[in-house]
Design goal:
about 240 residues; alpha/beta; six-stranded mixed beta sheet; 6 strands
């Protein structure tokens, strides 16, 4: 066995910009989209799949674990943590009256001549958790044999660690995501702009320091608890279990 590697994978993540205005379009005065505020509908689901067990070679286990040490590795468990989002938006035409100038278009730019529109998020669906939990066991050990059974028990403790920490941190992640979602304001979008709202989200999730701090604490705890379980005493117990 070896220290577990926890991977945080960005997969169509939610990202929030403070005022949700396109870069370079921080308007002077009032937000021209202020009259189109929408409270989004939010759904939230925790991803906690059943583990996938596979018999592989010791070399494959070492590769998966990122180990270069040629020493024999009996098993390995890994899980990828993800934040998935899907959202629904609604577009509103700008009210052309009165023609109010906004920087950086002032004095030529006004609402009446604008080629843009307001975009508001109406629904966000969050999924957080593990896309997969993979348990690898050396194929030298036949299923049902004592050695295989003991390695399986050991790896299932690691599975339990991943799941326990997810259950404890999911409410913290949920609270932060919901706070971010409810703070979303309608944004101004030029029709010619090719940067869609989901791309803006994807580019900015790592700009939320509170969310990143929660994820970092979660990752550290997963690593620490797995390392603590992979103790010399546990390795000694495994070595003696089937003698």
């Amino acid at each position: 066995m070896s220290a577990r590697i926890f991977t945080y994978t960005m997969a169509k993540p939610l990202a929030i910009i403070a005022a949700l205005l396109m870069p370079g379009q921080a308007f002077a005065g009032s937000n021209p989209c202020r009259n189109h505020a929408v409270t989004p509908e939010i759904t939230f689901r925790i991803l906690d799949p059943e583990p996938e067990y596979r018999q592989v070679t010791s070399e494959e286990i070492r590769t998966a674990a990122g180990l270069r040490n040629p020493s024999h590795t009996l098993g390995f468990t890994a899980a990828d943590f993800n934040i998935f989002t899907a959202f629904t938006s609604q577009s509103f035409e700008l009210d052309p009256s009165p023609p109010t100038p906004y920087a950086p278009y002032s004095p030529a730019f006004n609402l009446a001549s604008s080629s843009g529109r307001c975009v508001a998020i109406t629904k966000i669906e969050f999924e957080i958790g593990y896309a997969s939990i993979n348990v690898l066991i050396d194929d030298k050990f036949r299923p049902g044999a004592c050695r295989h059974t003991e390695i399986l028990k050991h790896e299932n403790v690691h599975v339990g660690i991943y799941r326990d920490i997810l259950r404890r941190y999911a409410p913290l992640v949920r609270t932060e995501l919901e706070d971010m979602a409810y703070s979303i304001k309608p944004m101004f979008e030029e029709r010619r702009d090719t940067r869609t709202i989901d791309r803006i989200f994807n580019e900015n999730i790592d700009k939320n320091p509170r969310l990143q701090a929660i994820i970092a604490r979660m990752m550290r705890e997963i690593q620490t608890r797995n390392n603590e379980y992979d103790s010399d005493d546990e390795y000694e117990r495994l070595a003696k279990a089937c003698k």
